[in-house]
Amino acid sequence: MRIKDWIPEERPREKMRLRGAKALSNAELLAILLGSGTGGKNVLDVAHELLVKAEGRLLRLDSMSLETLTRQKGVGDVRAVTIVAALELGRRIFEETATVDKHAITSPDLVYRLMLPGMKNLDHEECWVLYLNHANFLMGKELVGVGSMEMTVIDAQKILRRAIEKQSKNVILVHNHPSGNPYPGQADISQTDILRRALSSVDISLLDHIVVADNQYYSFAEERTGMI
Questions:
Q1: Sequence-ordered list of residues with C-beta below 8 angstroms from that of 204, at least 6 positions apart, any chain
Q2: CATH topology of domain 102-223
Q3: What global pTM score does this model have?
Q4: What CATH number should be reported for the domain whose range is 3-96?
Q5: Which residue from 161, 178, 172 is spatially nearest to 227, judged by alpha carbons?
Q6: Is the distance from CB of 75 to CB of 66 less than 8 angstroms?
Q7: Domain coordinates of the chain in residue numbers?
Q8: What's the pLDDT tens digit per position in 93-131?
């Protein structure tokens, strides 16, 4: 059955107007982005098929490339771009909220939840630095290194210069392990110590180094490795 043949209050767009976006299912929200059906299937059918391909998880949908989405029947290039853009906006809203909300970074778990949306499902390592003021409020974050599946090399002197420029008093280092194993290797430990020493030379503290691995993390500070 075509969507326009449904009763008005059950059509995704009309349902949103009447009840608000929160009343819609993931498939209905996705149907609004897709706009229309194809090949005898209504837009909600297409949305359901796409979610099935994503194993019913938005995170899985978020990890799909443009090429993968484009190959899905009923999606195509324009609709794939629309979906990726919408998901990216959602991610940026999450990150922006974490940045502008005036809450101190008080635990590794807060850092993990802040960084997970951008790091989950990456097939390579990325290294980020969080710059904090004297009260541990987040002043900004920056990508400082992109590596391979197994390793990222960080530039301690570059991070030191940026921390001084931002007048940051505290720094937190975050990187991901695509393998799913959160435990640091010897290179991680060595680079952490080099950065800690560089920052401490100008009275800036490296509060923690957190390794993100999908559904878990490792905190140097929590595990008392002696590096922080």
A1: 160, 163, 164, 168, 169, 170, 171
A2: Cytidine Deaminase; domain 2 (3.40.140)
A3: 0.59
A4: 1.10.150
A5: 172
A6: no
A7: 3-96, 102-223
A8: 766 665 545 678 889 999 998 898 888 878 889 999 999
